[in-house]
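Task card 7
Instruction: Convert sequence to structure tokens.
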Amino acid sequence: MNTNIFVFDIETVPDVATGRRMYDLGDLSDKDVANALAQLRRQQTGGADFLKLPMHRVVAISAVLRTRETFKVWSLGGPDSDEAELVKRFFDGVEKFAPTLVSWNGGGFDLPVLHYRAMLHGIAAPRYWDQGEFDRDCKWNNYLNRYHMRHTDLMDVLSLFQARATATLDEVAVLLGFPGKLTMDGSQVWERYLAGDIADIRNYCETDVLNTYLIYLRFEMMRGHLTAEQYQAELSVVRDDLAQADKPHWKAFLEAWKPTHE
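Output:
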């Protein structure tokens, strides 16, 4: 594997502040604004209420960082961090570690959302956007080209870039004997956010990103970048770290991890 692997996942809620300005929704509550945005979107699409990507506000970014010396899974910033801090921390990590980015549908959702929000907050990310202007090697392997591996979107790659062949993160994780989604899914994030459950959202995001990392390890073994022995050693690193963390969501993750396909 590359020396530095940075797996990421984001959670978002409706950007109600922009919605108020865009549609002149006045003093409606956040919940009512979100409902209005969903209704407008259903009218535009004929039924689907998933908002356009610029209308998503980031409330959590979780990551796995694997370097030659360390393994770490965590959520960027703190529960009280605002969106600008979260997005800046993400791109600062790219600047610092020049990692291979790994995601599940990151090319279709997470990264475009981060692009819009970084532009909103005036966040610079020269290494991320480099296509050879600063580093000649980035002309042939950069974060922006769909077919380069510096950003490996596992959903995209495993489906051979065919929309009809895609699967969900949960489906592939469970297929491989990993826990998959445990206590919530993305459709519940807005409700949990309104209830003030940002800690639960961050924990949920962390479990998603760890499922993604475990799938990535399997992918790396499949394409010959890890031997079977190295793959098992990486799984042991993950298990040991979770056990030492002694947190309820990691305890549940370990209990749900059924290594039938290892």
